[in-house]
Amino acid sequence: MAAEIPEFTAKDVAIHNSTEDAWMVIHGQVYNVTKYLNDHPGGAEVLIDTAGTDASEAFDNAGHSEDAFEIMAEYRIGKLKGAGNRKTAKPVKVAASAAPKPKEPSKARGITTTIGATAAVAALGAAGFYYASGTGAFTALPNLIFLNPALSKNTVSRTRGLGFFEGFLLASAVFGIAGGVVSQKIMKLLHAHPSFMNYPPHIKIPKAAKPNILLQGGWLHSSTYQTLPLVKKELVAPNTYRLVFELPNPQAVLGLPIGQHIAIAADINGKSVSRSYTPVSNNADKGVLELVIKCYPQGLLTGGYLEKLQIGDEVKFRGPKGAMRYKRGLCKNIGMLAGGSGITPMYQLIRAICEDDQDTTKISLIYANRSEKDILLRQELDAFARRYPKNLQVYYLLDSAPKSWTGGVGYVTKELMAERFPPVGVDSKVMICGPPGMVNAAKKSLVELGYKKPGSMSKMSDEVFLF
Ligand SMILES: Cc1cc2nc3c(=O)[nH]c(=O)nc-3n(C[C@H](O)[C@H](O)[C@H](O)COP(=O)(O)OP(=O)(O)OC[C@H]3O[C@@H](n4cnc5c(N)ncnc54)[C@H](O)[C@@H]3O)c2cc1C
Ligand code: HEM
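Above: inputs. Below: predicted complex with protoporphyrin IX containing FE.
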């Protein structure tokens, strides 16, 4: 007989919440992860923070692979009382339901619809009138339409022979066409009016409803690594490459929601190593996955693998991962702090916000680098700031600056963030990505400025979000 699986209540789990004794619930199963803390690739801190609780959501957001599911089995000690028999955690998927509801029709479309509806009602009324009057003024219509001499011979009897249905069709056609022509003329007039719809290009005009392709699912798989070939490798800054990978067909989309990232894995010296990267391409860029990666000579994955990649090499990817899935309306103001290659998740959001005609979010970016030549994606950032000044302001900060430099110099300070970032309480968030020293110093300063301290696992609702 199979051994009984021990059952625990949430209260039983809650008391095991320390570094020496860490239990947690993940999708109805109870795990004792005490001996795994130091081996956890996502860090001991996140496990300690969630010890004693139901960590399912945080676990899903990290986008764990099949490897993680295998390892988990070793630490499973039972199940949560009343949780059913679910054994495996739910992989993170880009849900089809994540697509936004169709937007309200635009003003212009509303006018067209009204005119169309009026024409239809008029047609229906005319048909009724035609049917009721029999030989009235409308009896001439069929002849006018068909220009058929045979019919004109006996207009009255012929038209009397038509029933409601024919009359309805004819009148509908005439009034429908007339309605269409009139509505087109009106629309032309509206578009030609200088104060309406003829804005300069940088002002956003609401557009008609379209599905948001940035939220669509695609090629990526959240728990299984799949490979793509490298088709382009270009040095864009010291030790930094733009790597372009080809999706299986030119129409394929990556399927990465804005704000999430992917993992790259490789076997290095007989050990599997994986690291996170945020593509600079998105679902609007069909057929490709594009990354900007800074390579460190001592870096395990970058120095040991990515820097050596040759065109045609196949690289393993999986995703989407991460707690940020940006959608218009997340908040009104965003302060962004990026250091070096930490610009990539910010760039992803900046691009999505600026390219969305209906997104009025205001972003203030502080982008810190060692020297001017280390600034990544500068052309793109400057172009967005120029074109969408209401959406984006960029402030570059350098450790060592040339004489002609007009941006900031030195480290990110509390004063600089107070000056450039939105204050707390105006529907604002601050997002940070960069080297640990910068991230920790900035977190501390932001708490002093009144922002709520973030936990070790970021959530979308956090005031300070760490990528
Ligand atoms: C959500 C997320 C998205 C990311 N997106 C990108 C991206 O788009 N492009 C990109 O280039 N990187 C990105 N990173 C960083 C990336 O995941 C790796 O940390 C980085 O490539 C180094 O990996 P490695 O194995 O080569 O270095 P490791 O072997 O992990 O580190 C070895 C040494 O390399 C140096 N080093 C490593 N990382 C950094 C750093 N960030 N700053 C300064 N020194 C460092 C240090 O000296 C370190 O001791 C992202 C990280 C996260 C968490
Ligand atoms: C028994 C429980 C767990 C196991 C066995 C486990 C295992 C792993 C493994 C193997 C990885 C490396 C990447 C991968 O292969 O998926 C990983 C990464 C990670 N894990 Fe866990 N994990 C557990 C629980 C958790 C929980 C509860 C959290 C959050 C609270 C978490 C957060 C993370 C994070 C943030 C990463 C890094 C993801 C990245 O690369 O961006 N893990 N974990």
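The pocket of protoporphyrin IX containing FE (ligand 2) is lined by residues 24, 31, 33, 40-42, 46-47, 50, 55, 58-59, 62, 64-65, 67-68, 71-72, 75, 263, 274, 276, 321, 457 (CB under 6 Å).
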